[in-house]
Structures are given as C-alpha cells and as structure tokens.
Amino acid sequence: MDASTRFETQTVGALPLIEHYFELLSIDKVIDEVVPWEGGVPLGTLVEIMIANRLLNPKALFRIGDWAGKSGVADYYNLHPEQINDDLLGRGLERLAEHSQNVQTALVLKMIKTFELDVSQIHYDISDVELYGAYETATATEPPPTPLPTYGRTKSGRKDVKQIQFGLNVTNDGAVPIGHLPLDGNAAETKTHLENLKQLDRVLPKGQLLYIADTKLDSPENLLAIAARKGQFLCGGAFMPHLQREFLKHRKELKRVNYSPQSQSHLPPEERDAYYACEIEDTLNGTVDGEYRQLKYRLIFVLSEAKAKQEAQTRERHVAKIREQFETIERNLGKYNLKTQDAVIRRLEQAKGKYVEGKVFEYEVTQSRDKLRLTWKINPQTVEELKQLEGLYVLKTNLTKTAYPVAEVLSKYKEQSQVERRFSNLKGPLAVAPMFLEKPSRMAGLLSILVWALMVMALMEREIRRRLKGKPLYGLYPENRPSPAPTGTALLECFSTVCMVIIKHHGSITRRLAQFTPIQYKLIELLAIPPTALQTFKRRCGM
After folding, report:
1. Rounded CA gap, 159 and 185, in Å?
2. Higher pLDDT pick, 152 / 405
3. What's the pTM?
4. What does the pLDDT average to over 483-491?
5. Rounded to whole angstroms, how far apart are CA atoms 459 and 117?
6. Mean pLDDT across the stretch 339-362?
7. What sign for the dihedral angle of Cα 176, 179, 184, 189?
8. How far apart are CA 367 and CA 369, in angstroms?
9. Virtual CA dihedral for 425, 426, 427, 428, nearest 10 degrees?
10. Under a CB-based contact definition with an 8 Å cutoff, are residues 497 and 56 in contact?
11. Angle 139-142-148 from CA coordinates, rounded to 5°
12. Which residues have a Cβ under 8 Å from the Cβ of 374 and sit 6 or more positions away?
C-alpha cells in the first residue's frame, strides 16, 4: 500500500448478529411467500431493513435509505440507498398491515420449531402510543380505519393528545412476543381479550393454554370464554365492595405463603417481604356462543406486607391533605367564596372526592342568623375498615389446587411483569414513539415491524440467558461487574462499536470486519452463531 491508499470505517453495530437471526427465522422468505407485492425491492427485504433500523437506529421512520447506506445495510442487501425510499417503505407498511396476521402465524410456527419455544403460558396487556398532529378520519361511506387515533385515557395522563393503543402477547419462556393487536385510541381493555383469544387460537398450535392478564380480564364473558375453550386463566380480580366484605369474613384464615420476590432471593428469609393468603371457591354462570356454561374457579385473597405499608403511608398522607383543606374551609367560613351553605358543602365534597380516603370524613354544615357553622370529624370505624383492606388484592384462576398451590399461583401471577418489561423495550430502546405517520394503516404496519424487532431482540436475550444457566456474565457492564441476566438492550449496545474497514486502493475497494473484543466473542459463542454465519455476512457485504 502507498499514499494513494485510503481507509474509511463504517459502523455496522450488531448487524451481523441480527442478520443471523433473520436467516434463522426466514423473515424475508415468509413475507415474500405470504404477502403479495409489486415493488421494485422485495417486501421481505424492506421489512428486514426496517427491523434492523429499529434495532440499530431507533428514530423516526425518515430517510431510511441514507441510514442504510451509512450502516452497511444497503451493501448487505446489494441495494443503492436511493432504492430504499420513504414512499416505498410507506406503501410496504400499508401492505404489511393487511397481511400481518398471516405473517405472524408463520413466524411463530418457525420460532417454535427453530428455538423450541414454549408457548403454553402467555401474558397479555395493552399500552398506548401518543400522537401529535392531524390524522385522517373515515368519511360517512368509509369504515373507520384501524387503529383509529382518538382521545383516550393516556398512560401519561395527558388529555390534549390523541393516541392509538396496542395489545401485546409474550411467552413466559423468555418473554418473546408472539402476537399483537392494533387498537383504537379509546378501546376498552376488557373488550380486547375476546379478540385476542381468537387471534391466539389462529396463531398457536393446539394445546392447553394458560392465559395470564391483569384485572381487565376479570369479566364473566372473558373468563367463561376461556373455560369454554378448555383453557386456563389467571388474573387479578376487581376488588369490588362485595369481595371486600367476603374477605373480611375470611380474614382470620390468612396463612403465610412460601413465596418471596426473585429480586429478594439473596436476602435472609426474615428480611424478605411476607405474603399471606386464603382462598374460597366461587362460581360463574353464563352463555358462550349460545350454550350455557358453569365455571367453578378459585378466588384467592393475597395480603402483601410491603404493599400494606405503602398503602398505610399513602392513606396517612391523603388524610392529612384532606384534613388541611377542611381546616382551611373552617377558618374561612363566611369569607371569599364560602358565604353560603351550598358553597361550603361543594368545597367539602371536592376535598373528600379527591381521594378514596375522603369517606372517613364526616361533617355537618348549619346556618343560623346568617352565620355558618361547620363541625367535622374523622370516623375511626371507617379508618379501621380501610386498614383491614390495606395490602390486599384478589387473584382469580381455574388452575387446580393440586397442581398449583397458592404459592405457585402467586409466583405465576408475578410473571406478568414479563409483558411490562417488553413495553419498556418498545417505548425505550426500540422507540415506538414519536410516530410520524398519518395513515392508520401505516401505523398498524409499523407496529408489526416494532413487535418483530422486539421478537428478534427477545430471542437473543433468551438464548444468552439459557446458555448462562444462572451464572453471571462478566465484561458486559463497566468495572467488570457481573450480569446474572443480560438484557437484549445491553447485548445490542455491546456490539454498537463493531466497524467495517473500507480500503480504497488504485480504484479497488476492499472491506474488512474489524476485530471483535473478548466480550463480543464471548457473546457470539453464547448465541451459538457459527463462524460460517459471519463468513456469509462478510461475503454479502462484499468482503
């Protein structure tokens, strides 16, 4: 080499690993077989590029071609960046939305076969995506689009933005996504379960399914529908007043449960959070598809000491705030806007209505000779009733007592955090928002891309953890700190420095993949990526 030789570097990050998983799942082949497409670039290729973009550069879906050219993705697929234009990707998202269910079914079957994925236990929940700007709405002659951006109860509490929602199903085995539901911004979660169950019937192979969700699953229609399918359910129960009264009858039956959170397993037993439980049998009657059904299930009351302490602190804080407002109203009787009996009552009710603890306050407002008088007190009996219910929640399940004692049921329900963790991935590392798309069909298509990107990341995380077998991994975190459960996000970040060296000499271009670090080699080994896979990557990139 001489002075005419030029060297350039191109950051490819975790692209070699991602492309290996694309090959294992046959994503491009599945999509090209299932989805009709007339574009100049195969739709399967476009989908893989968009998934790689979410995993490597999760920003707004804009000028993907420029990114593909700089990141080595265009070279890998033997494309020019101009071929990967935003208009083509947008049309691809629309087409994908029409066929995403068939694609999802094929991918799930491929995952089960390739990765021996256990799909017998599924966790479901919904989340939202807040939107900004104007969005198309249906005309009188058109059906409403799905998902329909509307105002709704956002997770952030904002009332001035529109949103769409989506439901997500993940396996207990590695928290791998196996399906999602695009939902209107104002869709009620309780009503989404029946449609979700139908989708799972279409996607999953036949076999008994344990379906776990939060309190929104707790409706007679949902529970009876699961039982009619010979399925099993486990959910939080809505702790309604009649259940509260039922619990108080059985409170003395509470017994210590042999359960503690996994995060406290390193603590001595006496320092771990204590849980107590008792259970009774209950019955549901109703019809499913016109047939009468009767369901007997377990109603489990659970008392968490840690939760009870938190709720006691919250109660005391709320009572103090309401008391302060009552004292302020009492001092200002006959002044400002507190000159009539109705105005005083209205302010007192506002103070009581802010928190559930308001029901412990009792008052009387009287007026004689144009003088207002307020007397009030805190009812100790009502306070005691609140104390009796602090730290409590209800679980409902048709799992048998012999196979699933209370401790096992509680442990299973706590695994619902799996789906919450994946929501965190979607809204953080994979950047489900901001969503700069106008058409609902494109939003639905992008949701599919995001879920499939999450699926690839979850499979990588699952493989690493399975091969570690509970042993810590060193070198992933600074200061060589141990990582007993590496996350998919950390794995991708570890490979973010991987570069391709481009050598230009007398008109010829040569590419070389830079040397991996020891921890990167270790992760490649744990992911069981063979040297031939890296050689294939190099060859397709022109090395």
Report:
1. 12
2. 405
3. 0.89
4. 92
5. 9
6. 95
7. negative
8. 7
9. 40
10. no
11. 80
12. 329, 330, 333, 344, 348, 363, 364, 365
Nearest to residue 329, comparing CAs of 309, 345, 311, 305?
345
Return d(Cα 329, Cα 534) in angstroms, integer: 74
How far CA 232 is from CA of 27, 111, 197, 398, in Å, comes to 32, 23, 12, 6
Q: Could you tell me which of 419, 413, 394, 399 has the C-alpha nearest to residue 124?
A: 419
CA distances for 432 relative to 59, 127, 129, 323, 509, angstroms: 9, 11, 7, 43, 38
List all residues 6 or more positions away from 118 whose beta carbon is below 8 Å from its beta carbon: 171, 172, 173
Residue with tokens 């144009």: 370
Residue 513: HSE in the Cβ half-sphere, 13 Å Cα cutoff? 22
Give the strand order in the sheet containing 255-256.
Answer: 177-183, 162-171, 121-131, 210-213, 232-237, 392-397, 291-304, 275-288, 255-256
For residue 199, give the nearest of 93, 94, 102, 96 by alpha carbon. Answer: 102
Q: Cα(539)–Cα(543) distance, rounded to whole angstroms? A: 5
Q: Which residue has the tokens 């619902």?
A: 416
How many helical (H) and strand (E) elements, i.e. helices and strands, does the chain have? 18, 14
DSSP string for residues in 462-523: HHHHHHHTT--B-SSSGGG--BSS--HHHHHHHTTT-EEEEEEETTEEEEEEPPPPHHHHHH
